[in-house]
Amino acid sequence: HAFDDQECDYLFKAVLIGDSGVGKSNLLSRFAKDEFRLDSKPTIGVEFAYRNIKVGDKLIKAQIWDTAGQERFRAITSSYYRGALGALLVYDITRRSTYENIRNWLRELREFGNEDVVVVLVGNKSDLGSLNSRQVNEEEGKAFAETEGLCFMETSALQNLNVEEAFLHMITKIHHVTT
Ligand code: GDP
Ligand code: MG
């Protein structure tokens, strides 16, 4: 692959969180698909992908962790969050329960994660928003994000809408925080 650790200026970890089935793995594979390395770690149930991004004149290597299905069993351990500087907190706009669970994810993230972890709240599956299947309005996501001080975006992993933007938003904001 094009870069190794020695060539990048910053290396940081970010995590994907949110209920099972909201689209975390598809968001990650969309984002990582160009320059990507997917390391499967079936024994600990975590996968991660790398993506190198240029911000200004610096090369940033983002290591993004996916839960690999462990969220189903509430088996995510503190090591998953440890050292993460960013998080994409994902819900499914067609499943209200996944939106209502955001508070719990946020609580866990703040308990186990870095104190000033950068969080982007993501309402995924926006491609289904024009049908009757939407259960969470965009305004609700926006309002919740505002009260919690998070960034917010609706995405579609299926149609590749806003996926790049959501990750890049998190990554450039982390870069801001860490420099
Ligand atoms: P995860 O459990 O959070 O990792 O979710 P997955 O990435 O495995 O996706 C769960 C299901 O939702 C799969 O059937 C995906 O095809 C579907 N899915 C994921 N993202 C989207 C999206 O943006 N739009 C639609 N319509 N379906 C999606
Ligand atoms: Mg998954």
UniProtKB/TrEMBL annotation:
Keywords: GTP-binding, Lipoprotein, Membrane, Nucleotide-binding, Prenylation
Any one GO molecular function term: GTPase activity
GO cellular-component term (any): endomembrane system
Keyword Nucleotide-binding in annotation: yes
Topological type in the membrane: Lipid-anchor
Keyword check for ATP-binding: no
UniProt-annotated location(s): Endomembrane system
Family of the protein in this entry: Belongs to the small GTPase superfamily. Rab family.
Protein name, UniProt field: Ras-related protein like
Organism: Quillaja saponaria
Shown residues within the full chain: 4 to 182 of 228
